[in-house]
Design goal:
The protein has 17 helices and 10 strands. With about 400 residues, the protein is an alpha+beta fold.
């Protein structure tokens, strides 16, 4: 399937109505159209496309049934549900000026239609107009950012779920002079959650072998964010890592990612977040970074500052993410762990109290799920190539390689 340029297609070329109002004046999407779009999304979700091409194809199909003028898609770390990047389409393309404020509201407030809240209550899709019974000013996000900055009157949100994990979420928008998203449309978006999740997970996996490893700057980055949400102090490592993130690996500027962590850290300080927030993000050069945010308290009891640290992910950080992406069982995860330790089939059988035949069955299943043909390919994929040269070096007391 040939790649499609990023962004939404020209409505005249695609046959999509030029506005949501025109579409609704004609009729609500028919059952036949909805089923056809659902089938299209399912097909592209399993077509082996990378993330950008999958999203372009999926949004093109979805727009036929649920018209919108702008869309923002966010990828999240499935282990923490924190933002790792955004991709924007339609008249939102290239509009990053409010990402910082958005991140603070998304993770610093407890609005019912935040992605994390929806995931907590099992709500796969939601419309702001519907959830507020038409009182959209009750949504701080819509009232303070979406309407004044972009002229949108309603937002529909849909989660992307796969194997019990949240992999991303889509936000679709209509302008103030268009009809709000209807219950039937939100229900239709909810029906796509598992297909979209499979497509996002598959898209991330398809990108692993396509990106080349790069040089890794050494040392953690540290930055201080003050009570006014401004970065007031950074060390040289933070400057280097922020530059790495700004190269485009996350699909957006690092501002939204940092502000999301800061917002969640403030909620943690208030007791509204279960643990200090952290996120794992893959850069344009193929490295995985781990970001942590922790609220600071002054000696005099004053609060408000947040420290954010950025460092290269170590194998213990990366492996759980890859295991989640491959969809391995607990036993298969154990086998992968032993493969990374260099054990052969017989040694793995003795360690796990399994026959060699059973270990080979697990290996076959792992290779199929990871789309590799050998243990060497699996190791390269788990460590994303740049870790392989370090496997023969010593390991220090921190658990990380010494060279």
């Amino acid at each position: 399937m040939p790649p499609r340029p990023r962004g939404l297609p020209d409505p005249q070329e695609s046959g999509v109505p030029q506005s949501a109002t025109e579409a609704h004046n004609a009729s609500m999407p028919s059952g036949l159209l909805a089923e056809r779009v659902r089938r299209d999304v399912e097909v592209v979700a399993h077509a082996g496309l990378d993330l950008d091409n999958f999203l372009s194809e999926a949004l093109l199909s979805i727009q036929r049934a649920v018209p919108f003028v702008g869309a923002c898609f966010g990828t999240v770390d499935p282990a923490t549900r924190l933002l790792t990047g955004t991709r924007k389409s339609g008249d939102l393309a290239g509009r990053d000026e409010r990402d910082h404020e958005w991140g603070l509201l998304e993770y610093g407030a407890s609005e019912a239609t935040t992605f994390t809240r929806m995931a907590d209550v099992g709500e796969r899709a939601a419309g702001v107009h519907l959830s507020t019974a038409g009182h959209t000013d009750e949504s701080t996000r819509l009232r303070e950012i979406i309407r004044p900055a972009f002229g949108y009157g309603d937002e529909a949100r849909a989660l992307c779920l796969d194997q019990g994990h949240l992999w991303g979420a889509a936000a679709l928008f209509r302008s103030t002079d268009e009809r709000p998203f209807q219950a039937e449309e939100v229900e239709f978006l909810a029906s796509l959650a598992l297909f979209m999740g499979a497509g996002v997970r598959g898209g991330l996996l398809a990108s692993l072998s396509a990106s080349a490893p790069g040089d890794s700057p050494v040392g953690p980055g540290v930055m201080i964010v003050d009570e006014a949400d401004a970065i007031v102090q950074v060390n040289p490592g933070a400057d280097r890592w922020l530059h790495e993130l700004a190269l485009g690996g996350t699909g957006t500027s690092p501002d939204g990612v940092i502000s999301s962590l800061v917002g969640a850290a403030r909620r943690f300080s208030r007791g509204d977040w279960p643990s200090p927030p952290r996120a794992r993000i893959r850069t344009a050069t193929g490295l995985w970074l781990v970001l942590h945010a922790t609220p600071l308290s002054a000696r005099n009891g004053a609060v408000g500052e947040v420290v954010v640290t950025i460092e290269e992910a170590r194998p213990p950080e990366v492996v759980p993410l890859v295991v989640a992406a491959f969809g391995l069982t607990n036993r298969e995860r154990d086998v992968v762990s032993l493969i990374l330790q260099g054990m052969d089939t017989k040694e793995m059988g003795l360690h796990l109290h399994l026959s060699t035949w059973t270990v080979q069955d697990h290996l076959k299943s792992i290779f199929e799920k990871a789309s590799v043909r050998s243990r060497r390919e699996l190791i390269a994929r788990v460590y994303f190539d740049q870790y392989v040269p370090r496997l023969s070096t010593g390991v220090g007391p921190s658990g990380w390689f010494t060279a």
